[in-house]
Amino acid sequence: MKKYLLILLLCSSCISHKYQKGIVKLEPNNNSKISGIIYLTQEKNGILLEAEFENLNRKFHAFHIHQNGDLTKNDGSGTGPHYYGLNYKEGNQILGNLGNIKRENKYTKYQDFLENLTIDEIAGRSMVIHAKKGSRKYKNFVDSGKRIASGVIGVIE
């Protein structure tokens, strides 16, 4: 029995993720002109996010993962509520709150590391840019205004 437990413990650190790369093409919502492309790369303890956004119209915009990948509604409401994480418990980090994007100029490059998330977990959900500034990364959500750009989190095999 001890032999099998040791093997199980050793192999648990060898678990690989099904998806290593993801992509999101952001499209405008609510008559905005905001768009962008987001590349996701799975790393050991989270996801490297590299993006370029176009036409951000405020100094800061809230950036979130939302529960659903439904982009059929022009106002972005099909993306559903914010994503908290698979095993969320009150007081834990809110994994879907990615903080704020700071506008640079017409084109804004953005990079972040999303701790404790996997592409497997968020594939098929959505990423959303909101009209207003939001709360700090992983903290409770505040009213961030309309959803002004959204896209489904796809995978690259």
Q: Tell me the structural class.
A: mainly beta
Sheet of most strands: 9 strands, antiparallel
Helix fraction?
Answer: under 10%
What is the gyration radius calculated from CA atoms? 17 Å
> What would you call the shape?
globular
Residue stretches low in confidence (pLDDT < 50, at least 5 long) are 2-14
Q: Would you report the number of β strands?
A: 9
Number of helices: 2
CATH H-level homologous superfamily name: Superoxide dismutase, copper/zinc binding domain
Element-by-element helix/strand order: HEEEEEEHEEE
> How much beta, percentage-wise?
35-45%
Second-tier CATH architecture? Sandwich
N-end to C-end Cα span: 38 Å
Instruction: Give the averaged pLDDT, no decimals.
Output: 89
Structural commentary:
It is a single chain. With 157 residues, this protein is mostly beta strands. The protein has one domain: Sandwich (Immunoglobulin-like). It has helices at residues 2-12, 119-122; strands at 21-28, 35-43, 46-54, 60-66, 97-102, 107-115, 126-130, 147-152, 154-156.
Give a quick rundown of the structure.
The chain is mainly beta and 157 residues long. The chain has helices at 2-12, 119-122, and strands spanning 21-28, 35-43, 46-54, 60-66, 97-102, 107-115, 126-130, 147-152, 154-156. Strand 2 and strand 3 form a beta hairpin.
